[in-house]
Amino acid sequence: MSVWGKLLGGGAGLMLGGPLGAVLGLVVGHGVDKIRKTEATLIDKESKSSNSSQFSSDDKQLAFATGVIVLSAKLAKADGKVSKEEIETFKSVFDFDNKDEETIGEIYNNAKKNSDGYEIYAKQLKIVFGRQEPLYIEFINALYQIAYSDGSLHINEKNMIEEIAKIFEMPKRIVDSIHSGYINSNNDFINIEEDYAVFSCNSNTSDTDLKKAYFKLVKDYHPDNLVSKGLPEEFIRFANERLSKINAAYERIKKSRRK
Q1: Comparing C-alpha atoms, which of 184, 158, 190 is closest to residue 172?
Q2: What is the distance between the alpha carbons of residues 259 and 247, in angstroms, rounded to a whole number?
Q3: How far is residue 155's CA from residue 166's CA, in Å, rounded to a whole number?
Q4: Which of these, 86, 157, 188, 214, could form a disulfide with 76 (CB 3.0-4.6 Å)?
Q5: How far apart, in Å, do the first and last CA atoms of the chain sit?
Q6: Within 10 A of 76 (CB to CB), how many other CB atoms are there?
Q7: Which of 153, 154, 158, 70 is nearest to 115 (CA)?
Q8: b/e burial code for range 101-128 (CB count within 10 A of at least 16 → b)
Q9: Predicted local confidence at residue 6, as pLDDT
Q10: Measuring CA to CA, how many Å separate 164 from each of 40, 42, 71, 144?
Q11: CA dihedral sign, ordered 27, 33, 35, 38
Q12: What angle do CA 28, 34, 37 make, to 5 degrees?
């Protein structure tokens, strides 16, 4: 069953409350006033009194999917316009079933009206997932892919992604590592130092330490591991693409070291 089938079939996700709960409530036809309190008040209350373990696996999958849609739409609007490339990239990132397109389109179109208010969604995601860094990496990875879909990274897009990463409490070196993969992907000239940055390493790193960093990434960000933490199955293909980029960067480094 798709992540949206879980919502429409049994009402999963409505216990999230807050801005994400409001979005999901609109999808299933609930009035916003029935499920949403004042956003800032609710987020403040939850951050002090709750932890991620109170949310079910279905709730987490719905939170992830809804969060990606909303933040992707607001990111696409960050440079002042939503391009065709950004919409197509969004569709490729979120490998959804055709029958779910109307639901997803409704959420996306409402969110893309402006880029304001993205912070409150990111803060709620941090509450839902707690210290699940691999899932936040998938979020940031998806946002970079959408931002670069038109060939360049606008300063407003860069600032927005970095602010979301701060809300997720992601170390700068990890955010830089994700970004490095897109710098090489969008240039004809491959900068091997950017490949090293994917592993938070450099040319002075030993073969042994480089291999350890590589295997840690493969283990931490393997799709099966991510699904167990709350990644919807609709994102498995995208997670596999990230693994492919990690493998490609590692192979290029190994080749350069044999020269």
Answers
A1: 158
A2: 19
A3: 16
A4: 86
A5: 50
A6: 26
A7: 70
A8: eebbeebbeebbeebeebebbbbbbbbb
A9: 61
A10: 17, 19, 9, 12
A11: positive
A12: 120
The token duo for 81 is 């316009």
State how far the alpha carbon of 203 is from the alpha carbons of 24, 169, 181, 188, 217, in Å.
47, 28, 16, 21, 18
Separation in Å, CA 215 to CA 1, 131, 168, 210, 219:
32, 21, 24, 9, 6
**Are residues 75 and 115 in contact, defined by beta-carbon separation less than 8 angstroms?**
yes
Q: Do 140 and 175 form a contact (C-beta atoms < 8 A)?
A: yes
Q: Which amino acid is at 34?
A: K
- Residue 161 CB partners (closer than 8 Å, separation 6+): 75, 140, 143, 144, 147, 175
In the chain, the amino acid numbered 50 is S
| Rounded Cα gap, residues 21 and 66, in angstroms | 9
DSSP state of 199: T
Name the token pair of 12. 């999963």
Nearest to 120 by CA among 166, 53, 60, 167: 167
Q: What averages of pLDDT result for each successive group of 10 residues across the chain (259 residues)? A: 60 63 69 41 46 73 85 83 74 72 78 82 89 87 85 88 95 86 67 85 93 91 83 80 87 88
Residue type, 176: D
